[in-house]
UniProtKB/TrEMBL annotation:
The protein, known as: ATP-binding protein
Entry-linked InterPro entries: AAA_16, P-loop_NTPase
Keywords assigned: ATP-binding, Nucleotide-binding
One MF annotation (Gene Ontology) recorded for this entry: ATP binding
Every Orc1-like AAA ATPase domain range: 19-205
Gene3D superfamilies reported in the protein's UniProt record: P-loop containing nucleotide triphosphate hydrolases (3.40.50.300)
PANTHER family to which the protein is assigned, alphabetical: ATPASE DOMAIN-CONTAINING PROTEIN, DNA-BINDING PROTEIN-RELATED
Pfam families associated with the record: AAA_16
Amino acid sequence: MESFRSNPFRPGAGRVPPELAGRDVILGQVAGVMEQVIEASEGDRPIVISGLRGVGKTVLLNEFVRNATESRRWIAVKVEAIAGGSLRKTLAQALHLELRKLATPGEQIRDQVARLLRVFRSFQLTVDPAGTYSFGFTVEAMPGRADTGDFERDILDLFEELGLTARDLGMGVLVAIDELQDAPKTDLNGLNVALHTLGQAPRPVPIVFIGAGLPSLPSVLADATSYAERLYDYRHLGLLNDAETTTALTKPAEARGVEWEESALVAARRAIGGYPYFAQACGKHVWDARAVPDRITDDDARVGIELARDEVDRGLYQSRWDRATPAQRDMMKAMAKDKDRPSAIQDLVQRTGKSRTSDLSVSRNELIKNGHIYSPDRGYVAFTVPGMADFIARKHSD
Ligand SMILES: Nc1ncnc2c1ncn2[C@@H]1O[C@H](COP(=O)(O)OP(=O)(O)OP(=O)(O)O)[C@@H](O)[C@H]1O
Ligand SMILES: [Mg+2]
């Protein structure tokens, strides 16, 4: 009985939620694109998914990759871009692991696969000259393919070769990059150019590219290459509506024979405000707070919400606050007055007692760089974490 009633909720970065609520449309659309790509053995437009912190971007990407891997019809890799780290290196590492699966030693390797491995080796040698990653047998680099050291040209060669090989094997290629806004600008430009070039072939190779990141990602990509605006199929991942939040909370409970009382559910929904991360935190603490095994009451909800709020305050909001400089805090306090709506820089100038927009530009740029805020529109800024404004209003307003 114990495990039947074990806590199903999963707060934390990238943790698979017990119920992936409100994402059926995007899951269906991406599945549709992928099916089409395999069927026609032809690539489609690259996809970009953007959304605030903790709305479930990583969970979605993982789901796409898991489905692809399970179907055994995809060469699938997922990497996370990190500020200051090159995409070439992370991609080379992830692809190495994936390509080893295509090249089990002892088996007769198809010509096209052997060719792909050689092109991959060229690509890899530019980041790992010692050739540490091995395939268990010798793979010579292929001169003139993916070996210039110029990311833009090499990634194009590599993607092309991956696509041709996948086609040869009746498979597709899935490349997923999380936190894409953090990749170096030159890498983003290289990626844009490569994907653009691939898309222009008479019969594009069967690659599906999915990038995910903060709401700033579309403009970061456009900054790197002007035509990026038209290159990608942009999808915004939003907060959950009431029905979706309800599903996220009640389905996992029902599966364990536990029922939410209506008033408890209303209280939890109000506290959660559609934020998936907070839904998991609330779910978890409310679950643990229940006084009887098969029911969640008002009281349980009140206690659990309180504990969840404390935990998220400490873990998510306070740590960001602590890392901010006094000037950055002033700016965030001024922003918090707009609640979860974007703030006009003009208003912030006034609220912080400054005289010019440029007086705020250092704080603005630093906060953007740290990923605390983003600019949804010219002259506006907004928090990247839902609930940050509320946290500041509760804890740090004077
Ligand atoms: N559709 C959903 N329904 C319920 N819970 C969800 C949903 N999507 C994500 N979650 C939960 O929300 C939390 C955050 O998910 P995830 O790490 O994927 O967000 P993210 O958008 O990648 O955040 P970040 O921008 O910080 O990387 C996890 O605990 C996850 O289980
Ligand atoms: Mg994430």
